[in-house]
Amino acid sequence: MAEHHKHHGLFHHKKDDEENTPVEAVILSDTTTYPDTAYGSGYTETTTTAVVADEKDYEKEVKHHGHKEHLGELGAVAAGAFALHEKHKAKKDPEHAHKHKIEEEIAAAAAVGAGGYAFHEHHEKKDAKEEKKEHDHEGKKHHHLF
């Protein structure tokens, strides 16, 4: 059978370029020879170690946090709209007003939480931009005349 695995779900998707990204590695090899003894003949043991240099993709990280920031903003808007909808229902349906008030307050809390998440991701994006800027200017001299 083919060794092809398909993931069905939301969180197991990989883009083609993520699977085949080249990785720089340094291979270290160490050979040890043990001499003959009274108990038996000697042997040689070789140990190989690969050290992978992982280069951080700063642009990808900035985009990633930007997308998550937008999702947080969208969640805040959606929850806020639902809270207003429930407030309107509470006025129009006095028989179930208490239920609608509770749902309104839950939606308002969700809107605040989503807004906080968007704010958090905004600062993560700013930090990633600063890291990218520091990485890009590493080793370069800047002469400011004014």
Describe this structure in words.
54% of the residues lie in helices and 15% in strands. It is α+β, with helices and mostly antiparallel strands. The protein has 2 domains: 24-53, no CATH class; 58-136. A two-stranded antiparallel sheet has the order 1-2. Helix 2 packs antiparallel against helix 3. It comes from Spinacia oleracea (Spinach). Residues 119-139 have a biased composition (Basic and acidic residues). Residues 1-13 have a biased composition (Basic residues).
Index terms:
146 residues, alpha+beta, 2 domains, two-stranded antiparallel ribbon, 3 helices, 54% helix, elongated
Fold topology:
Layout: H1 16-19, E1 24-34, E2 43-53, H2 58-92, H3 97-136
Antiparallel strand pairs: 1-2
Short note summarizing the structure:
With 146 residues, the protein is α+β, with helices and mostly antiparallel strands. It has helices spanning 16-19, 58-92, 97-136, and strands at 24-34, 43-53.
Number of strand segments? 2
Low-confidence stretches: none
Give the strand order of the largest sheet, numbering strands 1, 2, ... along the chain. Answer: 1-2
Number of helices: 3
SSE string, helices as H and strands as E: HEEHH
| Helicity range | 40-55%
**Main sheet, how many strands, which sense, barrel?**
2 strands, antiparallel
Assembly category: single chain
Global outline? elongated
Structural category: alpha+beta
Protein name: Abscisic stress-ripening protein 2
Family: Belongs to the abscisic acid and water stress-induced protein family.
Organism: Spinacia oleracea
InterPro entries: ABA_WDS
